[in-house]
Amino acid sequence: MTAPTTSATTESINVQTTRRMYAAVPAGDAETVMANIHADIEVTYYGTADVPYAGEYVGAAGFGEFLTKVGESVEVIAMEPALIIEEGDNLAVFGHLKFRTRKMGTDFESDFAHIIELRDGKWYRFRDFANSALVADVFRAEA
How far is the CA of 100 from the CAs of 30, 53, 78, 89, 116, in angstroms? Predict the structure, then answer.
């Protein structure tokens, strides 16, 4: 009887980049984050004005503004991708996050879906879908 044949799979550059990003953000590793974004990055965080970092951001400076707003508002405790689906330069990432607000130390958690487009192995477009109603409620309660 012959043992079944197995083949090792390797992750694409896009998935490797994305895994680096998900490790770097909670670690506060801004150098790795900035090294893995495209100069013309576009970021959209869907949410109401109650969420300090909701909105659209363009370019490296815009991405820096987004990260600054996030960092001033919350501590990223965990951002864990559970499933990454790849189609060419597009990724759908499903996972779970845990944040703590800076103002009052309120912990909150949400599942997320991130839609990411990469160019030349770097994040070019990032769209963040999470439980924005929950996030808005947390920030309204602390206002």
Answer: 19, 14, 10, 32, 24
Q: Does residue 103 form part of some domain?
A: yes
If one counts the domains in the chain, the total is 1
Please report, for the domain that includes residue 23, its CATH number: 3.10.450.50
| Rg of the chain on CA atoms, in Å | 17
Distance CA 35, CA 10 (A): 22
pLDDT one-digit tens code per residue, 16-75 = 999 999 999 999 999 999 999 999 999 999 999 999 999 999 999 999 999 999 999 999
* Percentage of residues of the chain with pLDDT beyond 90: 91
Domain that holds residue 130: 13-141
